[in-house]
Amino acid sequence: MREARVGEVAAYLGLRAEAVRLATLQALVKTHWPRLPEVKPPSHGYSCPRVCIGPHRAAMLNSGSIMAADIETALLRHIDAHNGCDDSGEFAASLGFDHLAVVGTIKSLQSSEMIASKEIDHFRWCLTEEAAAYVAQGSPEAQVFNSIPAEGLPMAELKAKFPGEVGDVGLKQAMQAKWVATDKSSGELKVVRKWKTYQLVKGPKFALERVKLATELTQDMLTTGSWRTQQFKACNLNALGQPPDG
Hints:
This protein has helices at residues 6-12, 22-32, 55-63, 68-82, 88-95, 99-111, 129-137, 140-147, 155-161, 165-176, 219-224; strands at residues 2-5, 50-53, 153-154, 180-183, 190-193. By secondary structure, it is mainly alpha-helical. Among the domains are: 2-63, no CATH class; 68-111; 129-193, Arc Repressor Mutant, subunit A. It has a 3-stranded antiparallel β-sheet with strand order 3-5-4. Helix 4 (68-82) packs across helix 6 (99-111) and helix 8 packs across helix 10 (165-176).
């Protein structure tokens, strides 16, 4: 005989361990495991009583082998405790059950009109074979760009390196994005990398901190005279207003 904690048995049956009293547990154990010894008192520092279970059930607890009756019991207790089950897939995953086995139990309980169910459709995005290749190797334009060295690459070599659609689409998209350009200065058509940087100089209103510009003339500005030094955001004084109605 092998011993297991009452808390483990309660969890296995889908019950809350703190709510299981000794007498109730004895009745449950006798129902699910006939001819078992009486519950032993706490000992050896365990926080809850322990019960003796037969070797067959102990092996099931250790190996994770679950019978249809166990799934049915756990499912019914879950439905009773939560006034239903929102998702059978989540229920199966939470207890380590095979969802197909849970579905079989659901069908059986439905035929007995013990439960009613409603199908929930689940969808997920899956990559196509082409998209999976782009994830692994990069988009066509990225592949083309990364294959071009600093000195450029002859167009013929690029076409040979990327035959078919990847080369055609990649070169077209890379040129539209202005990542690459063609160069004939060496007498040979080359594809070269292209990018931009910027040279900066001080502007007429340069400052170490951005000045917040006012967008309207307020009464406070007129009263205090701060409008004389306040910088305003440029506005078009010649713009026509909204025509009046009527």
